[in-house]
């Protein structure tokens, strides 16, 4: 990446670290004023649903730091390794810049999310759910905008070349990211498992124990359905991984590229929808439409690659 882009990347990453660091400093300033147990987690309405030791108040700083460190490592890897896409040198540079800046924007928004969480814990006040939804929406927009820009870059700068086995960082990331996101979803489910229903008024009602509210259908359903959905996605990832490896050995690059894109899209959108389900928010038609559109684009690119390969 050129010097200007590296400067922008470093500024965005530094701002993200400073935001999270400032929230940590403020929490430490308030430390002596806290009792031994404080509210550390919020329900869907923004009120505290978990009261625990004040040491758990470091949770947003810890998770936020892990996310930002992971993004920083990914950007460093992107800057040093080629994507493995069949595109021109100029397209390769543009693609890596777009991917890196997209991750930088996500890191900035993630730091704002955890800083807002930490601020509410530090002040022992309800979490502003409107701001949370705004930040989550901006993360979704940044992700979709980045993916769309990268697709356009690939279409504009793609090169016709001989068949080759998939290689490069893009193929590896498409294989790795869905597994990491699904593992994150499993960890989130394990952490939330005993908290359903999140509505405090129903939590002690035996008739609602273990039920999760579905905002899309306005009904309560057994929390085991969340586990079933997770197992279904894990099964799908295993099957697709086997197919991908087999087709890669056969040198069927267009099909492997299609599988890579679909696997990445499924991993990202499943993770987003799963967080919404566990948080008892509705899955909106916009994200579903974007997912369907990106899948259609993937199939179009596959068809064009098949024709180009003859």
Topology:
Blueprint: H1 3-30, E1 37-42, E2 48-53, H2 59-80, H3 89-123, H4 129-157, H5 168-192, H6 200-203, E3 211-214, E4 219-222, H7 224-249, H8 253-278, H9 285-308
Antiparallel strand pairs: 1-2, 3-4
Salient structural properties:
2 domains; 9 helices; 310 residues; single chain; two-stranded antiparallel sheet
Description of the molecule:
The protein is mainly alpha-helical and 310 residues long. It has 2 domains: 159 residues, no CATH class; 147 residues. It contains 9 helices and 4 strands, in the order αββαααααββααα. The protein has a two-stranded antiparallel ribbon with strand order 1-2. Strands 3-4 form a two-stranded antiparallel ribbon. β3 and β4 form a beta hairpin. α2 packs antiparallel against α3, α4 runs parallel beside α9 and α7 packs antiparallel against α8. 29% of the residues are buried. About 2% of the residues have low confidence.
So how many helices? 9
Distance N to C terminus: 34 Å
Supply Rg.
Answer: 21 Å
State the shape.
Answer: globular
- Determine the mean pLDDT: 85
Q: Poorly predicted ranges (pLDDT <50, ≥5 residues)?
A: 162-167
Q: Which secondary-structure class do the elements indicate?
A: mainly alpha
How many separate domains make up the residues? 2
The largest β sheet comes out as: 2 strands, antiparallel
Give the beta-strand count: 4
Strands in their spatial order, largest beta sheet: 1-2
